[in-house]
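User: Structure tokens for this complex, please. No commentary.
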Amino acid sequence: MSARSRNAHLSKTLYMRGLQCLKSLWLDRRQPEVRREPPPDLIARWDAGTEVGLYAQQLFPGGVEVPFNGRTKVEQLAQTRDLLAKGTQTIYEATFSSEGVLVRADILRKTRDGWELYEVKSAAGVKPHFPDDVAIQYFVLSGCHFDLRRAFLVHIDTGYVRRGEIVPKALFAMQEVTDIVREKQSAIPAEIARMRKVLAGELPAIDIGPHCTNPYECDFIDHCWRHIPEHSVFDLSGRGVDKWDLYRRGIVRMDDVPLEDLNSAQRMQAEFHRNRGEHADPDAIREFLEELRYPLCFLDFETYDSPIPPFDGTRPYRQIPFLYSLHRQDSPGGTLRHSEFLAPPGKDPRDALTERLLADIPEGACVLAYNKTFEARVLKDLAERFPAHRERLLAIAEGMIDLMVPFRRRDIYHWRMAGSYSLKNVLPVLVPQLSYEGMAIKEGKEASLAYHALDKIEGRKAREKAEEDLRAYCRQDTLGMVKLLEKMRALAK
Ligand code: SF4
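Assistant:
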């Protein structure tokens, strides 16, 4: 091995990247300019992860942090050595290096039995790749002759309900991974050697595969997948056929998929794509329409979630509604009325939103949502919070009708829906004048980020514009449902 390959520096992040794909490791070091910029929602997740890390430190308060911002690795290593020499019992972000691999331990704590390592994750459980993350830390610490007795993964406990201040001991759950991490030690030197060899050579010939999204979505997808055309086998909906098997057999374009390999839903998608076909089943649509009654309400919520429950009575990762749009029609062909509510950011939106919502939905109304599981879940969470309104909220949730059903059943299908029945795919095809193109906010993730950004906007006009962008997005969803229903009525005739 050349000196260059022997000396290639690795970190825990690079090691995990290399385990997922050696080409990704090579591109990261040698051709980083082809990397995709992290999308705003991923940056928001990283920020949330930092907050989770700070709460996790409170599990073992009184520790000393080794800061890494603005400090060199040499300084971080020296400070860690210094803290250990002084007998510090709890260290956050302790930094170690061995065999050219650098790791930072989220939390190191000395007990009567020896040192314990805690790796903090903002996930709601332990994922299969998490122990590898701890194993490389264990390997490096052992290489530094550090006597690590036990290792744990710390993750969010979604059963936690906030009451007052966050209670870290209740917010987090722990799983000991000492044994599995020890078992992984023997394979690590070979993995490191393999990664160094790759880094010293030319771009490895690794094709795309399931590893591109597992365990993480790779940030080189735009680069590596550029040979995949629009309308490919990867657009086939659902499970059914093994798309990677098709790809390995050289079948990439949707037009070339052998129909006999597909399940019925996929075959319909492929056939309709091939023939540029469309279809509507008037009997099935009529049956669906017969369920509806007046007054008719079209409801859509915008929500956000967070690993750290922001308000009393909220749980980790539960959706918190901050905006709704409601279109209402009291009789067939009657006037369409609209109401909406956008909660001011920074405080619990649920009280005011619930009061307004219940005032806007008439008693006994027939409420439609698109993908009602989501709206019904939000209503049930509100019912849990407001016992006084529980009965009505649950009645709305349980009586809700899902406008998505005829599209999921493919009572109505058009090849340009590309096997999807999401509103974002269905609406532009059936009601092209309501396309999301050109809107400032085009999807739910953007809406929740825009809501959190409202507080930071300076200037009344800019803030009003941002609020209107949010309302317009949500309004588009419910108006889209109104127009879809009109289209369905026409197709049923
Ligand atoms: S996109 Fe896939 S093949 Fe390309 S570097 Fe990433 S994981 Fe590897």
